[in-house]
């Protein structure tokens, strides 16, 4: 989640999000049961991400995946999702394209939401260490173009994927301001697709731990300390392939190795053993909403 964390930091949003999460009342005890949504993000961007997310579901603990409709490998992602009909699929609403050498564009061609080359802007807001004119919010996007684009993404996902159950926000960009969030919530109600899962509390993260073994140990600690309630863990599975080694941006070029470590943890036998021993129930977004 390093790229997500950097994006939130650039919005001045990450510390606020964390503070809100920590200030919330304890999660609903759910009759003493520990429930956990494990979400795998960014299907559609590349074939490796598609394969890794499905691996994290079939062989691991992921129960929900998020699909970026604008990605070059969206149709492959849709095919894989349809081949796994019990997999819970979210439309990962997208308004930015963060990688330096791999880009995706708006479906609608809205000029205020795209850069001079027609791609989404890289980051939610201009980062000081990035080239100028690379921040989505700084470009002052037209709200009507944002709504048209997000609507088109939902329609495209529903056209090709049978098991779409919810919406989520890529790098939080589509909900980064009250005006943008209002659009996302409007579409959520219109299409009867819940937006994110506000009743689920973040279970935590392994932070800056690098090696797969360190991450595995850190995640096991989170599971061991989890109390009854509804919890959420979000990450980005990957594999160390030549394709994924081509992804990256300033400050984050070890994407393939980093995300291969995510897949390692999500498919870890040790992790699965702790989940079984503690009676942790892995659920999807749809199950969280009683669907």
How would you describe this protein?
Strands 1, 2, 3, 4, 5, 6 and 7 form a seven-stranded parallel β-sheet that branches. Helix 7 packs across helix 9 (255-266). The protein contains eleven helices and seven strands. The protein has helices at residues 2-10, 14-23, 47-58, 74-82, 143-160, 178-191, 212-225, 242-245, 255-266, 269-278, 285-288; strands at residues 34-43, 64-67, 88-93, 164-169, 201-202, 229-235, 281-283. It is an alpha/beta fold. It has a single domain (2-10, 29-288), classed as TIM Barrel.
Task: Give a quick precis of the structure.
This protein has 11 helices and 7 strands.
Which range does the strand content fall in? 5-15%
Low-confidence stretches: 1-27
The CATH top-level class label:
Alpha Beta
CATH superfamily: Glycoside hydrolase/deacetylase
**What's the SSE pattern?**
HHEHEHEHEHEHEHHHEH
Q: How many domain modules?
A: 1
Q: What is the overall silhouette?
A: globular
Query: What would you say the CATH architecture is?
Result: Alpha-Beta Barrel
Let me know the number of strands.
7
- Termini gap: 28 Å
Total number of helical segments?
A: 11
* Annotated CATH topology: TIM Barrel
Computed CA radius of gyration, to the nearest angstrom: 18 Å
Helix content, binned percent = 25-40%
